[in-house]
Write a structure and sequence with these properties.
- About 30% of the residues lie in helices and about 25% in strands.
- With about 350 residues, it is α/β, with parallel strands linked by helices.
- The chain has 2 domains: about 230 residues, Metallo-dependent phosphatases (Purple Acid Phosphatase, chain A, domain 2), CATH 3.60.21; about 120 residues, no CATH class.
- Strands 4-3-2-1-11-12 form a 6-stranded mixed sheet, with helices on one face.
- α5 packs across α7, α8 crosses α9 and α9 runs antiparallel to α10.
- The longest helix is centred in the N-terminal third of the chain and has 24 residues.
- It is elongated, with a radius of gyration of 27 Å.
- The structure holds manganese (II) ion.
- Manganese (II) ion (MN) binds next to loops.
């Protein structure tokens, strides 16, 4: 029986240059990536693992200082009873950094980039196959034609790759690769954890990076021998990214809206997670939604929002008041369409919001 952690896509060092959140949050998140890395190392120790597999993008290399990198390798080297296996991904290509650390520590094994390499661990009766990235794009999968598995051993494959056929990020045919007979295929690159097929899994980013990476994040913990296989997802991320839909209706007053913004979010999540509210619907035209949102904001650790609402106008009254100008004519024209149809009603209200705000200038 061997026990191991499957992780990857930590993106240590990232400064979140394209993030929607501001610099102070980005700085905090950068440190939290290192904190999650430390949690993984601690988990490997407490679970008494034999291996720690890191499937690419350990670093966001262009933003890492030499200190950041030394900090990571020194921490991994302290795991003297655990074999650490690393492949380079598209954010930390196999270059001088990995070359420098490749043979420095007895328990850290970094795979080369020229072909799929095999590293054997007799003590555990295990062979681990993997290949690193050394260029920004791969249009085909690596060559498996010379891979002959020793069926008496536990065989593991590590790849940083994409299961989509036309990808430029090393497209792989996961079905065909699974058929070779690996006991586990540890994949990196896609940031949402999931089973792809059989015993092939994406570990996902251990700590989510942005609002595209909702849901739970962490590591996979696996126990396997030739007959038995057990996999558990272990949640490790310090925060989640949460996108919530909020629908506003014209009958909602100030307090109703204020309450609706946080209604479906737990206290714990408000205090801890990264939130995005997707606000839509129709708002009473006397209500200033931006002011309500500003008031709700301190209840969140972090909150951003999109506002897709339209004001609820008293159309007949406005029409009466604007009989001979462009506003009245616009309403008249729009009312020739079927106003029970949401699409036309929205167009009328959006146009009105624009025309009436023009009048204010
Ligand atoms: Mn990645």
């Amino acid at each position: 029986m061997i026990k191991f952690i499957h992780t990857g896509d930590l993106h240590l060092g990232s400064v979140f240059e394209n993030a929607s959140f501001p610099a102070d949050v980005a700085k905090l998140r950068r440190e939290e990536l290192f904190k999650t890395f430390n949690s993984i190392v601690k988990a490997a120790v407490s679970l008494k693992d034999n291996f720690l597999l890191i499937c690419g993008d350990l670093f966001e290399e262009k933003f890492c200082t030499a200190h950041d990198i030394k900090r990571v390798f020194d921490t991994l080297a302290s795991l003297t009873d655990i074999e650490v296996l690393i492949i380079a991904g598209n954010h930390d290509l196999y270059s001088s950094t990995y070359r420098h650390y490749a043979n420095k520590y007895p328990n850290i094994h970094i795979f080369g980039h020229e072909k799929i390499e095999k590293k054997s661990f007799e003590k555990f009766n295990a062979d681990i196959y993997a290949i690193s990235w050394d260029k920004a794009a791969y249009y085909a999968e690596p060559d498996f034609s010379n891979i002959k598995l020793d069926e008496n051993k536990i065989n593991i494959l590590m790849l940083h790759a994409d299961c989509a056929p036309n990808s430029t990020y090393m497209p792989i045919n996961i079905k065909a690769i699974s058929d070779i007979g690996f006991d586990y295929i540890a994949l990196g690159h896609i940031h949402k954890p999931r089973q792809v097929t059989g015993r092939a899994y994406y570990c996902g980013s251990a700590e989510p990076l942005d609002f595209k990476e909702t849901g739970e994040h962490g590591i996979y913990h696996i126990e396997a021998d030739k007959d038995a296989f057990k996999i558990d997802f272990v949640k490790l991320a310090s925060r989640n990214f949460v996108v919530s839909k909020v629908n506003i209706t014209p009958d909602m007053g100030y307090l109703d809206i204020l309450r609706a913004l946080t209604a479906n979010i737990s206290h714990e999540s408000l205090n801890n997670d990264m939130h995005r509210l997707a606000i839509s619907g129709m708002v009473n035209s006397a209500i200033n939604l931006d002011e309500i949102i500003a008031q709700a904001k301190p209840s969140f650790f972090y909150m951003e929002y999109s506002n897709d609402t339209i004001p609820d106008f008293d159309v007949d009254y406005i029409k009466q008041q604007n009989e001979n100008n462009i506003i009245g004519k616009f309403i008249e024209k729009m009312q020739q369409y079927d106003m029970t149809d949401e699409k036309y009603r929205r167009a009328l209200y959006k146009g009105l919001a624009l025309l009436l705000s023009e009048g204010d200038k």
